[in-house]
Design brief:
Layout (H helix, E strand, L loop, with lengths): L3 H16 L1 E13 L11 E6 L8 E7 L5 E11 L5 E7 L7 E4 L11 E7 L2
Parallel strand pairs: 1-7
Antiparallel strand pairs: 1-4, 2-3, 2-5, 5-6
Length: about 120
Amino acid sequence: MITYANELLLLILLVISKVYCGTRCATAVGTVHCRINSTMAMDVEVFLMDDDGIGNPDDQMGWNTADENGRFKVEGCGYDFLSDPDPFVKIFTYCNSPKGKYIKTKVVHIFAPDIIDYGDIDLD
């Protein structure tokens, strides 16, 4: 049985969730390099991720691939309750790794319209 107090509490929680939710968009650019074999820098998968901390899987905000020169631009939006997303880039590569590996960048709190520029990223 829903009482007036329960309805009021539910309404307050819904309002708070709308007020304290952080949906933000980010764009990240950079250039990946594989010193051992430069062709392994093209077409690598680049994921824009939201770091959600220990025990909570990271959320994917966006995805793209690097071009023939290793340049990438990936953009997307993330959502966190009570805070802004914590964007970082995760790159999957076979550079110097026959089974493939992921490389993660640091979290950078820069949001649109500004751009996160990771510069040169060494995949070796």
